[in-house]
Amino acid sequence: MSSETAMNKYSGGVADYRASEGKTTQISYRGAVDDTLLDILGGLRSACTYVGAKELKELTKRTTFIRVQEQHNEWFKE
Questions:
Q1: What does the alpha-carbon distance between residue 42 and residue 37 come to, in Å, rounded to a whole number?
Q2: Are 62 and 51 in contact (CB under 8 A)?
Q3: Sign of CA dihedral 47, 51, 57, 60
Q4: 22: left (phi over 0), alpha (psi -120 to 50) or beta
Q5: Can you tell me the distance from the alpha carbon of 3 to that of 14, in angstroms, rounded to the nearest whole number?
Q6: In 3D, which of 34, 31, 6, 30 has the Cα closest to residue 20?
Q7: Stretch 8-24: mean pLDDT, rounded?
Q8: Range of lowest pLDDT (13-17, 23-27, 44-48)
Q9: Whole-structure pTM value
Q10: In sequence order, what are the residues at sequence separation of 6 or more whose Cβ sits closer than 8 angstroms to the Cβ of residue 44?
Q11: 31-77 tens-digit pLDDT
Q12: Closest Cα to residue 51, out of 66, 62, 65?
């Protein structure tokens, strides 16, 4: 809720001492949210299988997470 659009809609605008974060983007309809959630859950199940985790809470014990500082995303061009 830190995009300029969200702050204008819900907080009366961006305060002088703050900067907006994120972008507001409109994308084409891709289907029901259920389908997207099933894809995400399928990816999590697959990841657990690859690392040998029987439960989701084991995932962090069996993997090393790496924080990505910069990412180039062609989908949301300015």
A1: 8
A2: yes
A3: negative
A4: left
A5: 9
A6: 6
A7: 75
A8: 13-17
A9: 0.48
A10: 56, 59
A11: 889 988 999 999 999 999 999 999 989 988 999 888 888 777 676 66
A12: 62
